[in-house]
Design a protein that fits this description.
With 365 residues, this protein is an alpha/beta fold. The protein has helices spanning 33-58, 72-80, 95-100, 105-111, 137-152, 171-182, 230-245, 275-282, 286-296, 302-324, 344-364; strands spanning 13-14, 87-89, 159-164, 187-193, 196-197, 200-201, 222-226, 251-256. It has a 6-stranded parallel β-sheet, sandwiched between helices. A two-stranded antiparallel sheet has the order 5-6. The structure holds thiamine diphosphate (TPP). Thiamine diphosphate binds at residues 93, 133-135, 163-167, 194, 196-198, 259, 263.
Length: 365
């Protein structure tokens, strides 16, 4: 018997807003003006927040942190498609998205200054998991949450999980996809393919022609999107989230984007990539592109831009002041959050740590 194909798979690609800010009329999402402006503000706040943190880091006022500059469309637009009762499971490179969920810069400043309090969600910021530094691990948490919701009969709710291209080389990611598929879990996997895992370019991580296709082995639908196109990112995420909420199971979205700055402030990208490459991607910056679109619709102008920049500056000034005026941190706070209930080993470690601290203090007194 001759061989025959028993399966043919394909990966769709979506771009709504081209690099010049022109939208494909047929694909344009039906978003009300206030939502479009809210998205633009979130992207600008994210960019300015990163810049402020960069300044503070260079002045020695905070520790190291991972900027999201260049990727604002990839993380803010899908977050716009979330409802309050949906879950946000982030990695560590979605600053503006976290602020859309109700976190603030002061909290990020706490976290990147080493205070555990920065990992505690502020009031009103529900169903938003803290930063996950362990690359890829959060995909498992997301599937666990999605499965638990299904098991408990909670309807019309989905989980959105972010991770990078590097995470798709981790076992956790494949395990998460496998179980999400098997259990038809209401989860949307959002890979921010920013081309690098620290200094390792995507070409040295995988020969897969797309990262989206990694879902196909699990029969999970997938799509590759221009990750610097806010409208494309919104549409793809809104559709996938709606499918998840209505019982249709998971989706993998690959956002093709670029990290315009360093991996973290401890990294020097000049060691592993060229200025020319960075310049090419600067031309695709998601923020000016989206602004042109808003201007074309009559929703934006230079007066509004000026007002927004002033408002954002004021917001960030207030956050920095709030952070720098905080006192009385609890040095043993990390021990509170290892398990949900007290554990004798953890308590023993806490006691040892506090005793050590006391000893250091009396020696330095
Ligand atoms: C399990 C694990 N391995 C290694 C690291 C060290 N590490 C931190 S970030 C990073 C690269 C992550 O790349 P990617 O997933 O593409 O995300 P990006 O940093 O580009 O946003 C690595 C290897 C880690 N935090 N966790």
């Amino acid at each position: 018997m001759p061989r025959k194909d028993i399966l043919r798979l394909s990966v769709p690609y979506l771009q709504v807003l081209d690099e010049k800010g022109k939208a494909d009329k047929e694909l344009e999402p039906d978003l009300p003006p206030e939502e479009l402006v809210r998205l633009y503000r979130a992207m600008v706040l994210s960019r300015e927040g990163d810049q402020r943190m960069l300044n503070l880091q260079r002045q020695g006022r905070i520790g190291t942190f991972p900027p999201g500059v260049g990727q604002e469309a990839a993380f803010c637009a899908p977050t716009l498609a979330l409802k309050k009762k949906d879950w946000f499971v982030g990695a560590f490179r979605e600053p503006g998205a976290r602020m859309m969920r109700g976190e603030n810069l002061a909290r990020a400043l706490l976290l990147y200054n080493g205070f555990e309090e920065g990992n505690v969600a502020p009031e009103g910021c529900e169903r938003t998991l803290p930063v996950s530094i362990i690359v890829g691990a959060q995909t498992l948490h997301a599937v666990g949450i999605a499965y638990a919701m299904k098991y408990k009969g909670e309807k019309d709710t989905a989980v959105l999980v972010f991770f990078g291209d590097g995470a798709t080389s981790e076992g956790d990611f494949y395990e998460a996809l496998n179980f999400a598929s098997l259990w038809e879990a209401p989860v949307v996997f959002l890979c921010q393919n920013n081309q690098y895992a620290i200094s390792v370019p995507r070409s040295r991580q995988t020969r897969s022609r797309t990262l989206a296709q990694k879902a196909l082995a699990q029969d999970v639908p997938c799509i590759q999107v221009d990750g610097n196109d806010a409208l494309g990112m919104y549409s793809a995420a809104a559709e996938a989230l709606e499918m998840a909420r209505s019982g249709g199971g998971p989706t993998l979205i690959e956002a093709v984007t670029y990290r315009l700055l360093m991996h973290t402030t401890a990294d020097d990208p000049g060691k592993y990539r060229s200025k020319e490459e960075e310049e090419e991607w600067r031309k695709k910056d998601p923020i000016p592109r989206f602004r042109i679109y808003l201007e074309g619709k009559g929703l934006w102008n230079s007066r509004k831009e000026e007002a927004l920049r002033a408002e954002v500056k004021e917001t960030l000034d207030a956050e920095v002041r709030a952070f720098e005026s905080m006192k009385d941190f609890q040095p043993d706070a990390p021990f509170d959050y290892v398990f949900g209930t007290p554990h004798p080993w953890i308590e023993a470690q806490r006691a040892e740590f506090l005793a050590e601290l006391e000893k250091e203090r009396s020696e330095n007194a």
